Amino acid sequence: MFRDRLEELARIKEPSARSELVRLLSAQYADKLEREPSDTERFLFSSLVLDVFDQLDHSVRLDIVVRLARTDRITSALADRLATEAFDLSEAILEHSPVVTEETLVDVVRNRTDRH
Asked: Rounded distance, CA 8 to CA 80, Å?
């Protein structure tokens, strides 16, 4: 059933379907608590999100951040990218992410808004 829904969304070309597909994948990925993802799974998931992030609805972007900010289930590349977003999207990453790099944190302090 879940797989069928994902396949159906993948066939639809509309941006809202893409957002829903990534939201569902993110929820499934974040909620798999019985084991840690492998490095390959972490890389593939993060790469997928990085590739389509600009195309996602704001609510889906926020959902990804909230679900994954406190975890090490994403790569530093994704955490660093999320840290440079608008403050409402970057706040949780900046406060809690164990994988955001110090270099990005320094850059955010120097170049982003006071809220950041």
From this structure: 31
